[in-house]
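Suppose a colleague, Dr. K., hands you the sequence of a protein chain of 122 amino acids and asks what its three-dimensional shape might be. Before reaching for any lab equipment, you can write down a predicted structure in token form. Begin with the sequence itself:
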Amino acid sequence: HVQLVESGGGSVQAGGSLRLSCVVSGFPRVSGCTGWFRRAPGKERERVAAIDWDGTTSYALTAKGRFIISQDNAKNTLYLQMNSLKLEDTAMYYCVAQGGIWDSCLKAAYTYWGQGTQVTVS
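The predicted structure, expressed as tokens, is then:
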């Protein structure tokens, strides 16, 4: 079965950087999408970034220009490099995966979710 395990969260000062990782197992990476969501306290869950199986990336406006999503298919690992972090980036970040073909991975409906990793910016 599909498992997603995030790591790399932590506390960082505003303006700093963090890199999140997500090991994806049981998900054949020959199609479909993987990506990152986040949920801040008291706010709704929001999409952050996504990547197609062939490497096509897409970003939410809040992430564009600051975050970089990438994947290493040989390691079955998804990454989110977060730069110029802001207070409002504080949230639980979730790794997601979904099979199938989507016009935009950022808009895909995701079935598989990790447990999340906390990012706190102060």
